[in-house]
Amino acid sequence: MKSRSVSALLTGSLVLSACAMGPNFHRPTMNAPASWGPEPSSGSQTYAGAVDTQWWQSFHDPELSSLVSRLGQQNLDLQIGAERISEARSQMKVAASAGLPQANWSGSYAYRQLSKQGIFSLAEPRPGSSMNFNLYENVLSTSWDLDLFGTIRRSVEAQRANETATLAARRATALAAVSDLATSYMQLRGIQQQQAILRSNIALARTSLKLVQDRFANGVATNLDVSQAAAQLASMSADLPGLENSEAALINAIGLLLAEPPRALEAELGPASIQPPPSRQRSRGAAVRTDPSPPGRASG
Questions:
Q1: Where does the UniProt annotation place the signal sequence (predicted)?
Q2: Residue 151 domain-assigned?
């Protein structure tokens, strides 16, 4: 009878633990006003085709590819995201460990000497015995949470969901960082091309002004012609500092994404280059690291 009672108790405990977790999460229905429009249906708002995760390689620009590969190792936001992923995984392990048997042990040692004064003075020690002795203490305690109501399991589920959200946030940060880097790089090359065209036009405007001045000296042109040529040259020259400031700002913006100090990339990005045209041909190359492992341990 006793064995049957124990068996029934264990069976009841297992049934209770299986049913005490409660219902799983279900996405709530949306009761939006009709003026907001219908809910998006599955398949109508999502691109189902293959996505090129190394889209910057389609520009076939070695400098851009080098910057993107360094971005995954040097960007501070991506490094913070990697640490947060490691933290989320550690928290999930901590939550899961709460359901395992726990064992704690503590020990201590003390060297004691009994005083010959006080109550011990009434006792007569055995001849040759010492009033000094060693005291050892060992304490072992064990515990095990059976998780009958599913608290630990729900905690593990919550930490796993938090890890997934953290990983998705880091991937979104990587996508935004690459997008900002590529946009700044394209704008930089465009600004440099504008500077080259403007400097060429300034040189032509100087030549034109000299010709007009020569014609004025020979009585062929008027003061108005000279003034118009000089004004055109001055207007073009006034636009050049603005383009130079924009170039410096874009170089510093790229350096900020790579965690570089201001003006650190001027020698690398300062020489003008053409804006790379996109190509439909897909290519393979280095990818931005989105895994939580530190650079150098695992491939991204």
A1: 1-20
A2: yes
Identify whether 56 is part of a domain.
no
Whole-prediction pTM: 0.66
- The arithmetic mean of pLDDT across residues 41-68, rounded, is 76
Number of domains in the chain: 1
Model confidence at 55, in pLDDT bands (50, 70, 90)? confident
Please check whether residue 54 lies inside any domain of the structure.
Answer: no
Phi, psi of 51 (to 5 degrees): -110, 130
Q: Is the CB of residue 258 less than 8 Å from the CB of residue 178?
A: no
More confident of the two residues 291 and 246: 246
CB 76 within 8 A of CB 259: yes
Cα angle: 35, vertex 39, 43; to 5 degrees: 145
Burial of 174 (0-12, 13-18, 19+ CB in 10 A): buried
CA dist 210 → 177, 202, 207 (Å): 49, 12, 5
What CA–CA distance (Å, rounded) separates 115 from 95?
A: 51
Q: How far apart are CA 64 and CA 280, in angstroms?
A: 17
Find the CATH number of the domain harbouring 271. 1.20.1600.10
Cβ atoms 181, 66 nearer than 8 A: no
Q: Which domain holds residue 93?
A: 69-99+107-114+132-294
